[in-house]
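Here is one chain, start to finish.
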Amino acid sequence: MSKRCGRRCDRRRNDEDGRRATRSSNRRDEKYSFALGRAPRDRADVIDWLLLILPGCIWGASFLFIAEGLESVGPNGVTFLRILIGFLTLSTMPAARRPIAAADRWNTAGLGVLWLAFPLSMFPFAEQHVSSALTGMLNGATALFAAAVASLLARRRPARGVLVGLVVGFTGAVLIAWPGVTSASRGDDQAFGVLLIVAALTSYGFAYNVAGPLQQRNGALPVIWRALGASVLLTAPLGIPAVLHAHWTRWPVLSLLALGAFGTAIANVLAAMGAGRMGATTASATTFLIPVVALLLGVTVRHERVATLSIVGAAICLTGAWLIRRSHAAMTAVPVARVTASG
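Its structure:
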């Protein structure tokens, strides 16, 4: 009897030991699978943050690169080289060479004027009169011009949130330019430089409204690549002579290479990837970094002086752009919520 009891007790102890070992193994497997599942999510978050930060930083640095390039070559040469280098850089990417609809080819060529050839020609001429920091800060008003042009083309009053953002943003833009315009001497025509920047931003406003439908139908990179190709042809007649008569030194050459490869090509690739992963509204937040980076680089690298009122104006301008972005996001979310509720 005692032997049977002993055998039963041994079996029970063995079963309990087995169950404990199984539970311990399961816990280890759960921890290991959790760690494996968490690693890709962490990597994805890092990639998303990089795609959100890098384009804005590159575009913000573009105004420093323009200023450095002007040390060796004239404004027309700066524009031509950045577009040419950007076009050649994108040409190495198969995704950019995908075909587009035949009906969109002429509109894409026109986009090359509105988005690239004209505005990118204005910035180098403007930086002969105003600082790279001021140019970059005023560039923060791009979203304001795009929203204003969209309302103009639609022939209707903008939504209340957009209207508030426009008033706030344009007030900030005026404050950015005010110190330079009011204190400029006769030989230092900063007002003319500001007008050139406003002309470029107005062109951007029309370009963004034209580019959206084209990119939705054909993809961002194929449209940008073809627009760059058209812009190379448009800027070549004035750009090539300027390049041939340039006096090259190391830093202007490196600046223009960075301006073309990164500012005109790679930043657009990263922005397109960000829009694909996070949505266009979230990815567009990268533009808020442009005035900040331009200001920091202009002050620290080129030792430019920027009035406190201009910095305050830049903050107000970005607030207006944020209000417009928030209003657009809310208008987009409402139809989605209705569809979800009805389903």
